[in-house]
Write a structure and sequence with these properties.
The complex is a heterodimer of chains A (113) and B (112). Chain A is mostly beta strands and 113 residues long. Chain A is built from no helices and eleven strands. Chain A is globular and about 40 Å long. Chain B has a single domain, classed as Immunoglobulins (Immunoglobulin-like). In chain B, the strands form two sheets. In chain B, strands 2, 4, 5, 9, 10 and 11 form a six-stranded mixed β-sheet that branches. The chains are: A mainly beta (113), B mainly beta (112).
Chain lengths: 113, 112
């Protein structure tokens, strides 16, 4: 089992560029999440999904978009990248039962210059 | 406002001692609280979960307590080892869908 796989691991963008962060899981989890982690700050929830075709906003969704066409994949789209989006992005998944633990990917370090 | 607070200063202890990390929260009524470990350049890894009606939970050298009156959880690592050096995150969720809210984490350094 690979678990949660994120690509790329590192990326540098110029202001105004767009990109998609990929996330896939092979555990047949219903729930998937995108978090960002800034130095000295806790993980902040960007978007989450409770199943294919269903997505919802988290705490900090502005500047991002997501889609969930399959159970396995949950890509995060950045449109018009801004320096404020420089962060480490983590994708996570869980079965979705109450109090279920999250499985995280290894993260994507993104710099917007 | 709602807050989850963990000590931002690193905790330095000697090998063999017990490490105690603190997670305080305000204006939440969590149904449960989780602890994760995060190594540099890696994603968090789940360690333990404790529910609101539980006082204490143990797993090998790890122990978590949960005091809903004090609004605090303590995370203990007994007989600590250098391999325990990492950042430890607490996260809580209210009832219903589990949108976990994370603390900022405390870095633990265990020296030989």
């Amino acid at each position: 089992n690979a678990g949660v796989t994120q690509t790329p691991k590192f990326r540098i963008l110029k202001i105004g560029q767009s990109m998609t962060l990929q996330c896939t899981q092979d555990m047949n989890h219903n729930y998937m999440y995108w978090y960002r982690q800034d130095p000295g700050m806790g993980l902040k929830l960007i978007y989450y999904s409770v199943g294919a075709g269903i997505t919802d906003k988290g705490e900090v969704p502005n500047g991002y978009n997501v889609s969930r066409s399959t159970t396995e994949d949950f890509p995060l789209r950045l449109e018009l990248a801004a320096p404020s989006q420089t962060s480490v992005y983590f994708c996570a998944s869980s079965y979705g039962t109450e109090d279920e633990k999250l499985f995280f990917g290894s993260g994507t370090q993104l710099s917007v210059l | 406002s709602q807050k989850i607070e963990q000590n931002s200063e690193a905790l330095n202890i000697q090998e063999g001692k017990t490490a105690t990390l603190t997670c305080n929260y305000t204006n939440y009524s969590p149904a449960y609280l989780q602890w994760y470990r995060q190594d540099p350049g890696r994603g968090p890894v789940f360690l333990l979960l404790i529910r609101e009606n539980e006082k204490e939970k143990r797993k090998e050298r790890l122990k978590v307590t949960f005091d809903t009156t004090l609004k605090q959880s303590l995370f203990h690592i007994t007989a600590s080892q250098p391999a325990d050096s990492a950042t430890y995150l607490c996260a809580l969720a209210t009832t219903g869908f589990q949108k976990l809210v994370f603390g900022t984490g405390t870095r633990l350094l265990v020296s030989p």
